Give the backbone structure.
Amino acid sequence: GITLSDYENTVVDRNKKRKELGLSAEDIVCIAAGDLVERKNYKTAIEAIAATGHKNLKYLICGKGPQLKQLRELSKELGIEKQVLFLGFRKDVIELLKSSDIFLFSSLQEGLPRSLMEAMACGLPCVASKIRGNVDLIVNGKGGFLCDPTNTDEYVHALNELLKSKELRNQMGAQNLKEIKKYDISIVENEIEKIYRGVLT
C-alpha cells in the first residue's frame, strides 16, 4: 500500500515546476519512473512517443540504469531527443507527477507496481502494459488504457486518445484517485492484520 496523505498534502506550483524542466504550458507531459533496464521496456514507450508525431508531447523518465546510452541514441535516431528528458534519480517524483499529464508505463514484468500507484494517487490517467500488477490497478478504458507490452501501435492509439481530450484525461485521473483509496496503507495494514488473526487463532 501507499500513504495517500503524502500525495494529498503535496502542493505543487505546476507552472514553476515545468519551467524548471524547460517545458511550456502547451506541452502535454508523459512521465515514468524506474530503473533504465530492459524489463522496464522504455524502448516501446519512446517509439510510441515518436509515432504519435505530436511535437508538444514530452516524456520525462526518472531513473538511472545501464540502458541510458542506448535509450538516448534511440531517441536521437527517432528525431525526438528534445522530447525525451532523462532526469536521472529524483527526490521530487511526487512533484513531477503532479506537474505531468499522463503516466506512461510499458514494463514487461511487475509485481504490484508502486510507481503506478503513485501516479494514480496524483490523479494521472495511465497508459500501461497489460501485465500482472498493472491489470489489478487499472480498469481498462476507465483509469487509462492497458496495452500489449510490446505493441507500439496500441500505445500510440492510447496516447492519441488522451492527447485529443483533456476532458478524458481528467475523467480517467479522477477514476484513479477514487480507485487508489483501497490501497491506502491503513486499509492494507488492517487487511494484513485480519489475515494474521485468521491464521494464528
